[in-house]
User: Which sequence fits this backbone?
């Protein structure tokens, strides 16, 4: 069963319905889009560390290897932060 989007406007002339729907569409289009959040310094540092970790270990990208690599990365990063 299809929902009739014009049901709230029953009884109005067709031209009025079209004007109201056009204005609603215009308002929806003018809404600010979701803001794209910049990476935090901590996230940038983690990405840089992970890149270094990958280069040092020349990790191959397979799903199984990736989850193991993440565990290794966390250990490696923790050890390097203490130095």
Assistant:
């Amino acid at each position: 069963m299809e929902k009739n989007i014009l049901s709230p406007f029953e009884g109005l002339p067709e031209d009025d319905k079209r004007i109201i729907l056009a204005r609603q569409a215009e308002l929806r289009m003018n809404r600010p889009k979701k803001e794209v959040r910049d990476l935090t310094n901590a996230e940038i540092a983690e990405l840089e560390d992970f890149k270094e970790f990958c280069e040092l270990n020349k990790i191959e990208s397979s799903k199984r290897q990736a989850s193991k690599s993440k565990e290794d990365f966390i250990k490696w990063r923790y050890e390097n932060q203490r130095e």
Notes: The chain has two domains: 1-31, 41-82. The two ends are 66 Å apart (CA to CA).
